[in-house]
Design brief:
Blueprint lengths: L1 E6 L13 E5 L3 E5 L5 H7 L7 E5 L5 H4 L1 H11 L6 E6 L2 H12 L7 E6 L3 E5 L3 E7 L7 E7 L8 H6 L6 H7 L4 E2 L5 E2 L13 E4 L9 H4 L5 E5 L7 H7 L4 H10 L5 E4 L9 H10 L3 E3 L5 E3 L11
Parallel strand pairs: 3-4, 4-5, 5-6, 12-13, 13-14, 14-15
Antiparallel strand pairs: 1-2, 1-16, 2-3, 7-8, 8-9, 9-12, 10-11
Helix pairs in contact: 9-10
Bound molecules: zinc ion (ZN) (2 copies).
């Protein structure tokens, strides 16, 4: 899996930074967090598919986070997308999309399912992962999201399977799926006898626009990556509070409180043509901080060596 940053600016785009949009990608699926304007061209540049299985998560209904959505949906239709698409976010998304579709009079070639979040909690539960929403601390109703994979099965040892008298084939596959198997002679073999321990799944947190908030440390606990609002530097703390955003040190404190492994700073105000100042301030609090740039890629390998990626 990998994270690809398509837009890292706040409120207005700059020549270097497009509006907020981040993609989490596996080999079979992708998850888009926020949909700033110009997302289609950013996706083209980053070679992100318009046809792949996709879910979109919107943090809140401020223009810089959602104005790319109608254009993205139209582009997908013009490219003859067939796969259905799911969109999650706060109340109001359905009427925003209906209004755009009626006013602009466009048809879609695929099904769009909109899920408006009425209360925080798990909003997606799939076989291999779940997505949870928590209310963040912005000027309007707004959510942060955590993407959490289920544990991966441990490494399979063919030589152990053969030693137990298990021929290569369906019985191996059953054990790899975590099932116990019975041989024709009545012998029972459990997965633990031929496999290593489970490998932990990956945990990624995307805050959207937010000031620090109390529930965050629990919500984001032990995350592999936190992608956090970092609109202002520490000298503008009171401005951050008025506008419902975080400063560099506040973002870093959130990551430290959550015991995260890595922090990526994003949603950078256009007042900073160079964002080193913000990164320096964050690093003083949380060493493993990274400044997002458009098209930055963060690889998220499985935690143990010799493991296949999703
Ligand atoms: Zn914003
Ligand atoms: Zn906002």
């Amino acid at each position: 899996m990998r994270l690809i940053f398509l837009g890292t600016s706040a409120a207005v785009p700059t020549l270097k930074r497009s509006l907020p949009a981040t993609v989490l990608q596996s080999s079979t699926e992708q998850w888009i967090f926020d949909c700033g304007e110009n997302i289609q061209r950013q996706m083209m540049s980053a070679k992100i598919s318009f046809h792949k299985k996709t879910k979109i998560f919107l943090t809140h209904l401020h223009g810089d986070h959602v104005l790319g959505l109608p254009g993205l949906l139209q582009t997908m239709a013009l490219m003859d997308r067939k796969n259905s698409l799911q969109i999650y976010g706060p109340l109001g998304i359905q009427s925003f999309l209906s209004c755009c579709q009626q006013t602009l009079n466009f048809e879609l070639t695929y099904q769009v399912e909109v899920f408006e979040i009425v209360k925080p909690g798990v909003i997606v539960e799939e076989e291999r992962y779940l997505v949870e929403a928590v209310k963040s601390n912005h000027t309007i109703e707004s959510y942060s999201y955590v993407f959490e994979e289920n544990p991966h099965p441990g490494e399979f040892f063919p030589e152990k399977a053969l030693a137990h008298g298990l021929p290569k084939g369906e019985l191996w596959a059953k054990l790899q799926r975590g099932e116990t198997v019975t041989l024709s002679n009545g012998k029972i073999v459990n997965p633990e006898q031929v496999m290593g321990p489970n490998r932990a799944g990956r945990k990624i947190v995307y805050t959207g626009d937010t000031m620090p908030f109390e529930a965050f440390a629990d919500f984001a606990k032990d995350a592999d990556v936190i992608v956090h609002d970092c609109t202002f530097d520490d000298a503008l703390t009171s401005k951050a509070e008025i506008n419902g955003h975080s400063t560099a040190s506040q973002a870093a404190n959130q990551a430290r409180a959550a015991n995260a492994k890595k922090l990526v700073l994003t949603h950078i105000s256009a007042r900073y043509p160079y964002a080193e100042l913000l990164l320096d301030q964050a690093k003083k609090v949380f060493e493993n901080s990274v400044m997002a740039e458009d098209f930055l890629i963060i690889e998220l390998p499985l935690k143990e060596a010799n493991s296949a990626s999703l």
